[in-house]
Backbone:
């Protein structure tokens, strides 16, 4: 029996674990991977104290910090359901079962898929959701980045330095990411921005060799020859656990200012919740808040 | 008899670092191949694994795509 079970080891989960461990709680973290979305980020310039740090580097620092504390870390497991048994929680992963007096859900978000033909077939065969990981393999090739927000701009900025040409396909009439990134991106000659474009299908034989898209107002599908497709169209919360927990219309777990969910003893933090802004530093702060509340809850119950 | 271990990786890929750390922690010698610097090696990896994701860990004749602790441990006999 643990004092607190933390689901997820991104910035929210790891910070929650550090805070909980420092309060001498018995902590178990159950997670698929370490770092979450932060691990996939290219360059991070807005994590206070680090003027310029890569995602993997920052995750390395979080991990080092965590490893200096007495926490049971279980990696490579996915939590499927949680049930309430009196004032104890049973957490079931795909490999094991855990019991704890309190739970902090910090499972973050995952990439949204396009839902177009060819997407599943060509995953890892030229189509990827992580420019940071796979970008370097497309050196000198023509690639498409699908999306218009910060993740797409981040991918675009990485790929203009590596690829021969980058097509940025965005389905609204203008890019929505930070102006500073847009300006930096548009300075590159090997970039073509296509607004009002929605991807129709991904094509190829063994690997990707092109995609089709439609522009609003034009019935015809256009085609571009690309050897790489980076999908950066948004994220969905990892909130599909089998448990009756309150979520909003975006499937984010609803929390109050104390990170409490509608179930007593279950707290949530970070991108999986309805916290209005999703940033690494916010997730870390939310993790700390949730851990403090979990500590108070465990002490009083 | 120990089997030759090769890791095809890129310098920015987080799973690549974890795979290499795992090998180091278990005192397994391996050859690190940075496919972002070498087009020929990138193609070799693609031909060997039939896909373009990193890491690809080769243990003897076993080709393991991604950092799969279970499969990797089994191939290494640990």
Residues:
């Amino acid at each position: 029996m643990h004092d607190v079970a933390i689901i997820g080891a991104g910035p929210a989960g790891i910070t929650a674990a550090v805070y909980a461990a420092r309060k001498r709680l018995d902590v178990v973290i159950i997670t698929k991977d370490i770092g979450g979305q932060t691990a996939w980020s290219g360059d991070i310039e807005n994590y206070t104290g680090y003027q310029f740090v890569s995602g993997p580097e920052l995750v390395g620092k979080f991990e080092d910090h965590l490893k200096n504390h007495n926490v049971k870390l279980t990696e490579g497991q996915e939590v499927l359901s949680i049930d309430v048994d009196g004032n104890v929680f049973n957490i079931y992963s795909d490999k094991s079962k855990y019991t704890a007096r309190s739970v902090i859900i910090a499972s973050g978000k995952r990439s949204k898929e396009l839902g177009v033909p060819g997407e599943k077939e060509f995953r890892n065969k030229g189509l990827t959701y992580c420019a940071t990981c796979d970008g370097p393999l497309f050196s000198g090739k023509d690639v498409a980045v699908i999306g218009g927000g910060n993740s797409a701009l981040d991918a675009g900025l990485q790929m203009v330095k590596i690829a021969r040409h980058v097509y940025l396909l965005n389905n609204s009439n203008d890019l929505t990411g930070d102006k500073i990134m847009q300006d930096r991106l548009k300075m590159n000659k090997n970039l073509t921005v296509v607004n009002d474009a929605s991807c129709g299908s991904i094509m190829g034989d063994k690997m990707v060799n092109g995609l089709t898209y439609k522009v609003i107002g034009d019935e015809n599908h256009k085609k571009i020859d690309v050897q790489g497709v980076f999908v950066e169209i948004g994220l969905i919360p990892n909130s599909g656990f089998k448990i009756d927990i309150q979520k909003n219309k975006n499937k984010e777990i609803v929390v109050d200012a104390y990170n409490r969910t509608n179930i007593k003893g279950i707290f949530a933090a970070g991108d999986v919740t309805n916290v209005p802004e999703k940033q690494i530093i916010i997730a870390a702060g939310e993790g700390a808040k949730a851990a403090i509340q979990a500590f108070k809850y465990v002490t009083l119950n | 008899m120990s089997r030759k271990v090769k890791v095809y990786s890129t310098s920015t890929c987080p799973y690549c670092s974890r795979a290499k750390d795992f090998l180091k922690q278990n005192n397994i010698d391996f050859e690190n191949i940075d496919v972002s610097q070498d087009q020929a090696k990138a193609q070799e990896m693609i031909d060997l694994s039939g896909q373009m994701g990193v890491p690809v860990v080769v243990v003897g004749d076993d080709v393991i795509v991604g950092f799969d602790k279970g499969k990797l441990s089994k191939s290494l006999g640990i």
Q: What stands out?
A: Chain B has one domain: 5-76. Chain B touches chain A at residues 10-18, 35-36, 39, 42, 46, 50-54, 65, 69-70 (CB under 8 Å).
